[in-house]
Write a structure and sequence with these properties.
single chain, 274 residues, alpha+beta, Chitinase A, domain 3, 4 domains, five-stranded antiparallel beta sheet, three-stranded antiparallel beta sheet, 11 strands, 51% helix
Length: 274
């Protein structure tokens, strides 16, 4: 079959005849051998066809008959060959650039995808940060509100306590003369003098009125009983004495005590068995 040299210019004419309808077609092909891309059908006919003459090859399949005619062949001169080689070099460079461009485009696409992913992540992170900031703000506000409530409650308690015990200092000073006044009234009960007794009755009424006033502001007496157990919260030891009674039993009351609401402002003075 035919063989061609590199850079040889070859022109073919391909006659195609369809056996089913006897229709014929003709087409010309021109190639620079080993430079241009050759049609696979042309290569198949050259490789597998039957040589009719030096310029014709026939190739048959089930439905079609092909006749390939070699119209011309000529060697390319040095100048044309140089141009072809340069063109081929340029084509190779162009293909290389195309490949590099495709790689760069792939890299750019990947970078764009990465950027989009980073944008999405940044948005998600920003939303998470925003939500965390909102949660922290809510928690801080809740803590502030709780603190304000505690302060307010504490202030209310302090105000309430201040109101309850506002008279404590005054009452502490009043207790001693009031106690002495009561002792004097009790001591004068047995005097056999009608005039003095009338005064004592008046003083006693006055004392009761003062006692009622003091009771209305929260002052109450602490009156221990002989035989009860000593309580350090409301009693104060005047003296410890030896006794047949159980230890810490109150033997004698020297003086009553006083409480302002729940606060002991003067403990009862007692003698206790040791």
């Amino acid at each position: 079959m035919w063989t061609f040299e590199k850079f040889e210019q070859v022109i073919f004419e391909l006659l195609k005849k369809d056996n089913s309808n006897q229709k014929e077609e003709s087409k010309k092909y021109s190639y620079i051998w080993n430079y241009d891309e050759i049609d696979p059908l042309i290569l198949e006919i050259i490789s597998n066809g039957k040589k009719l003459s030096e310029t014709e090859i026939i190739f048959k399949n089930k439905k079609t008959v092909y006749k390939l005619k070699l119209i011309s062949r000529k060697k390319i001169n040095a100048k044309e060959r140089s141009l072809i080689e340069k063109n081929q070099s340029l084509c190779n460079d162009l293909n290389k650039l195309k490949n590099e461009l495709q790689l760069k485009e792939a890299e750019i696409k990947k970078l764009n995808d990465d950027i989009e992913n980073l944008k999405t992540k940044a948005i998600l992170d920003a939303n998470v940060f925003k939500q965390e900031a909102i949660n922290v703000q809510k928690k801080a506000q809740s803590t502030i509100n709780e603190y304000k409530a505690k302060i307010s409650e504490h202030q209310e308690e302090q105000i309430k306590e201040a109101k309850l015990y506002a008279l404590q200092s005054f009452l502490e000073k009043l207790i001693l003369p009031l106690n002495n006044f009561e002792i004097a009234i009790n001591a004068a009960q047995n005097i056999d003098n009608s005039v003095l007794k009338n005064f004592i009755v008046g003083f006693n009424m006055l004392y009761k009125q003062v006692e009622e006033v003091l009771l209305s502001v929260g002052l109450t007496k602490i009156i221990p009983s002989v035989g009860e157990q000593f309580d350090a919260n409301i009693h104060q030891v005047y003296e410890l004495v030896t006794s047949d009674l159980e230890k810490d039993t109150i033997i004698e009351i020297k003086n009553i005590g006083y409480k302002l609401h729940d606060r002991v402002i003067k403990p009862a003075l007692v003698i206790v068995a040791k």
